Amino acid sequence: MQKFLNIFPRSLIFLIDFISVAIALWLAIVVSFNFNITEINWYIAYKTMFLVLIVFSMVFFSVKTYSGIVRYTGTKDAFRIALSVVISIIILFVLALFYFQNVEKLYLQNSILLLLAIFGFMILMSYRVVIKYIFSYMRNVKMTKKMVIIYGAADIGIATKRILDIDSANNINVVAFIDDNTKKQNKVIDGVTIYPYSQLISLVELHRIDEIIIANFTITPQRKNELVDFCLDHDINVLTVPPYNQWADGGFTPKQLKQIKIEDLLEREPII
Questions:
Q1: H or E element at residue 182
Q2: Confidence band (pLDDT; 50, 70, 90) for 91?
Q3: Could you tell me which residues come within 8 angstroms of residue 68 by beta carbon, excluding any fewer than 6 positions away?
């Protein structure tokens, strides 16, 4: 399943989008007739379906709704889908108003178009979100999770978490932020709570932490020494983010988060 989701082809996404619009139109027609199927003229319904699918397919191709990576579905994909639905509905509204109203009757009433827009967006987004979470679940089940704490809840720490989250090669679970700034403590960022340094011991015991990532370029030498000594005592790996000038332009990757030698981190002689 995970391998299949990794190579989810664009042609298949386009096909599912195509089917989703068809389902959305059937729902819109049925709902507009108050679920009284016997009153529906299926010949008109099929002609309407043909036109709607042509319009949506052309818009999908133009807006490239199928180009996004499904397992990374986000706000940009939602905006792209919403835009394609709005454009398609406007085109159908204009056709119904200036052409089909006088030539032949189709199920393009305003109420049906409104329902089509609502159902269409919901279905197009829903299946993407479902696939995204299936991928995330399969990845987490397959691999052993590495429990991680990030020291530093400023921009660097938040960027570090988000980079780790989108890297499918890592199965890292960021369970907490640690920050000495009292104004940030007990707040939540991306679903992860910020704790004071005093709660580090309880967090390690509760989550069985494997690594602590130092994502704070202004950490004091005293705090750094305390943190590294704590990690030594509890057999926890210490990592740090690369200097800002190495990743400010997008060069920072999770591969750069390598284990730091304690003697280098503390600028002292190795402990024998």
A1: none
A2: very high
A3: 76, 77, 80, 128
Helices 75-95 and 42-63: crossing angle, nearest 10°?
Answer: 130
Residue-wise pLDDT for 61-73, tens only, equals 888 776 665 656 6
CA dist., res. 12 & res. 67, Å (int): 11
Mean pLDDT value of segment 162-179: 79
Picking from 239, 241, 254, the residue whose alpha carbon sits closest to that of residue 167 is 254
SS3 15: helix
**Cβ contacts of residue 72 below 8 Å, gap of 6+?**
132, 166
Look up the pTM and report it.
Answer: 0.53
Q: How far apart are CA 16 and CA 174, in angstroms?
A: 34
Cα–Cα distance list, 196 to 83, 152, 187, 230, 236 (Å) = 43, 10, 11, 15, 18
Per-residue three-class SS string for 73-124: CCHHHHHHHHHHHHHHHHHHHHHHHHHHHHHCCCCCCHHHHHHHHHHHHHHH
CA 27 from chain centre, in angstroms, equals: 28
